[in-house]
């Protein structure tokens, strides 16, 4: 049986996604922010657990894509990919925040499943 998503669940789900913006100020903050909130609240809410898994999988995937683009920047083409990835990250994170406020888990595109979704 699916448990109803409470206002508190929505707020913490939204916070998981929004905390990834810390990465624009702190190195690896886009992973650490969601990770900390997910670890604190995953046992209390299935919704927050799913939001955390989804966000962390995306941010880890994005980190790999950025590293690859950084290597390609040495050849010259990686700068374009880095710019595209920055815009892609921003758009997907805003969409995830909107979905969480509606009580839905956002399924990020181009995500490698490092942490299994239950």
Which properties best describe this structure?
mainly alpha; 118 residues
Tell me what you see in this structure.
With 118 residues, the protein is an all-alpha fold. The chain contains 4 helices and no strands. It has helices spanning 7-18, 29-41, 46-73, 78-101. It starts with 6 loop residues before the first helix and ends in a 17-residue tail after the last helix.
Brief synopsis:
With 118 residues, the protein is mainly alpha-helical.
The number of distinct helices, counting runs of at least 4 residues, comes to: 4
**Spatial extent as radius of gyration:** 15 Å
Intertermini distance: 14 Å
Strand content: under 5%
User: Outline, from the CA principal axes?
Assistant: elongated
Count of strand segments: 0
Mean pLDDT: 93
How is the topology of this model organized?
Blueprint: H1 7-18, H2 29-41, H3 46-73, H4 78-101
Helix pairs in contact: 1-2, 1-3, 1-4, 2-3, 3-4
